[in-house]
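=== Structure Prediction Worksheet ===
Name of assembly: unnamed complex
Input type: mixed (protein and possibly other molecules)
Chain count: two
Listed entries:
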Amino acid sequence: MRGATHAKWAALATAVALAATACGGGDSGGGGGADGVVSSSWGDPQNPLEPANTNEVQGGKVLSMIFRGLKQYDPKTGEAKDMLAEKIETTDSTNFTITVKDGWTFSNGEKVTAKSFVDAWNYGAHLKNNQKNAYFFGQIEGYDQVHPEKGDPTAETMSGLKVTGDRTFTVKLTQKFSTWPVTLGYAAFAPLPQSFFSDRAGWLSKPVGNGPYTIDSYSKGSQMVLKKWDAYPGTDKAQNGGVTLKVYTDNNTAYTDLIAGNLDLVDDVPAAQLKNVEADLGDRYINVPAGIIQTLSFPFYDPNWNKPNQAKLRQGLSRAIDRNQITETIFQKTRTPAVDWTSPVLGEDGGFKDVCGDLCTYDPAEAKKLVAEGGGIPGGTMRISYNADTGSHKEWVDAVCNSINRALGNDRACVGNPVGTFADYRNQVTTQKLTGPFRAGWQMDYPLIQNFLQPLYYTNASSNDGKWTNPEFDKLVNQANAEADTAKAVGIFQQAEEVLRDDMGAIPLWYQNGSAGYSERVSNVTLNPFSVPVYDQIKVN
Amino acid sequence: MGRYVARRLLQMIPVFFGTTLLIFLMVYSLPGDPVAGLFGDKGASPATIAEIRHKLGLDQPILKQYWDYISGIVFHFDFGTQIRNDRPVTEVLGDAFPVTIQLAALAFAFELVFGLTLGIVAGLRAGRMADNAILIFTLLIISIPVFVLGFLIKMVFAFQLGWIEPNVSNDQLLSEMIAPAIVLGGLSLAYVARLTRTSMAENLRADYMRTAVAKGLPKRRIIGVHLMRNSMIPVVTFLGTDIGALMGGAVVTEGIFNVKGVGGLIYESITRREGSTLVGLVTVLVVVYLITSLLIDLLYAVLDPRIRYA
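=== Predicted Assembly ===
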C-alpha cells in the first residue's frame, strides 16, 4: 500500500515535469515543409463516416480528405471537374455512360472499378442501410424499389445501374436531368472498397478511401490523425505531411488554442470573437462566401397565410427588412445581404444574378404600403419561429422583427418565437405545426442553381417545408432539367426564380460566409464553397 | 453492521429502478424528434426516419422501451446505442467517465486539503486576524461565478503568465487537469472551510472539551482526536454529496477548459434528446450517489462512537 502511494507521487511528479517541458514546445506537429502536420479544429461527426450518410460539415471534412469521386469541385470556382471520370456521355440527358479512369486504387491497394461505384450507390440508396443522403440517388431508375415510401424494399439493387465493363457502367435516370453529372462531385457518390461491404464495423472504425490522405488513427469523440498518402494517383496530392483533427467541445476553446499556438486552423470563428479577430489574426482570417442561404419561409398550408392577394404582403415584409444593417451589426459582415434565392458561389455563369432587385431593398415607406395592400399581417401579429439552441438565431430574428416593426410603425407586428431545441424545431416545421413565418437555411449539396430551387420550392419537394406551390415554377424547372445546353438551362432556372420572386414564396435574407483563422505556422489556407478547408493545399512553413 | 450494509444495498434496487424510470419518462416527454434532428435543415425521407426509429426501438410504446432498455442493462450490461453516430452508449460512457473521475478526484483532493486546512486555522483562531482573512477570502470565492473564475484563471495563467496550457488537450494529461480542478473545486473549498470553521469554533466550547483540558491531555490530542472527530461530521456529509455534484455538475468548467467529460455529455444529450445516453449517465451517477451516501453513513459510526448500526 505504502509502495503504491509512492508510485502515485512519482507518477504525478513525472506528469508535472512532462507538462513543464511541453509548455515551451508549442505544437508537437513535427517539422515544417512537406512533412509538416496541420492541426485543425473538429467536432464529433454526427453520423458514422459513410459517404452516403454524412450530411454535415464535420464528417464532410474527413470525407473531403479520404475520398475522391467521379467529379471534384474546384475549391475556388466551384466548377465540377473530372476527377475519376474519364468521360460521362449522354445523348438524351437520361441515359449516361460513365467511364472510370485507369490507375486509381484505394489506399489498401484495391483497384477502383465501375463496381466500386455501383455497389456504393446501391448501398447508399437502400432503405435498410439508413443512409441519410439516400435521396441523392432518387433520380436513378429503380430507387422506388429499394427505397419505397412505405413498406419493405422489393429489390436489392437499382435497375438503373449496370456495370458494363471493368471501368464502365451505365446509369438510367427516371427523367431528363441534363446537369446530373455535376452532382457527382458530392461525397455521397464516392466509391467504396470491398472491405466496406465485408466488414462494415471494421471499416467504420478506420475508414479506407481513395483520397489524398489515409486515416492513421481514429479515437471517436477525441481526435483523428490523417497521414498523407504517398502513392495517391491524383493530381491534387497533399502539400503537407498530414492533418490532425482535434475535437473541441466549443468553438471558443478552439479559438483560444489557436491564439495560444496549440492549433493551426479553426474553421469556425465564434461570433463573440469576431470583433477581436482583426487584432488577433490580421490577414490570417478568411471570410468568404459559402453555398449557404438563409431565408424566411411562410406556412402556405395555413389558410391565413394562403390568401390570393398576399404576395404583396410578403413582398412588403421583404422590403421592411434592413439586411445591410443586420449583416453589419449582428453578423460583423460574415453574412452578405441576399439579392436572389441562390448563392454567389455559383458565379454568374452558374446562375447567380440580382433577381430580387427592389424587392430585397429596404424601403420602409414602400413596405408599409405593400403590407397594407396585401391585407395586412394575418391576426395583426406574426411570430417568427426559430430554434434557440444553436447559432445566433435569436439575435437576428429579434433584429428582423425590430426592422419590420419600425417600418410598419407597429410594435406588435412581429415577435420572435423561440423553440428550445433543434430537434423540436425541425419536428414542428416538418409536421406543419407552425402558424407563422419560420427561419430556413439551405446549404447546397452541389454548386448548381437547380439545387437551390428544386428541393426547396418545387411542389411537395423534400425540403419544401412551407408547402409553396406554383405550376408555372414546376413547369419551368422540368423544362430546365430537360435542357441539354447548360447556359440555356441556367436561363430557364432564372425564369423560374422570377416566378418565385413575383409570388415571394420565401424571403431571401442573406448568404452565409465561411470563416476560418489560422496560425503563422501554415499558409495557403482556403475554404471551398462548402466552407470546408481545402486541407490538401495547406502548406506548413 | 453487516446486516445494516446489506439492508442499505437492497434499498438501492428500488431507488435504481425509480430514478431510471423517472428520467426515461422525462426524456420521453421532451418535445421533438431526435431522429428528424439528424437531418439538419434538409427535408428527410419519411421512410428513412421510420426505419431508423424502428431500428432504435423508438416506435415501441414507452413502457416497452423502458423494459427493453432496463433488461439490456441488467442482463447484458448493454446501455443501448446513441441515436447520433450509432455508437454504443457503454463506449461513450467509458470515454467520458475516466476523464470526469480524474477531474473530480483532483478537485476533491484540492478542496479537501485546502478547505480543511483553512477551516481548521480559522476555527482555532476564531475572531482573530487569520479568521477574518479566511472569511473574506471564502466570501470572495463563493461570490464569483464559476465561469468568471474559469476565464480569469485561463487569462492570467495561460495567456499572461504562460504557466499552463489554456485548454485540456486530447491526451488529457493529469497536469492539464489542475487548472480546471481548481476552478471546479473552488466553490466547495470555500464551503468546506466555512463549515469546518463554524463546527470547530462551536465545539471548542463544548463540555467534553473542557473535560479533556481539565484532564490535562496534551493539546495535540485534544484538538486532533476530541475536537476534530466531532467537528468533522457535518463536513463529511457535505463532502460525500459533493462527489456526485463534482462529477455531474461540471458543465461550465468542462466547457471552458475543453474537458470531454460527463457534464458536457449530459448537456449535449439533453439538447439532442439522446434518451439512452442520458439515462445511462444518470444511472451511473445515481449509483455513485448511493454508494457515497452509504459510505458516509458508515463513516458517522467511526467518527461518533455514540452512533451504532445494528
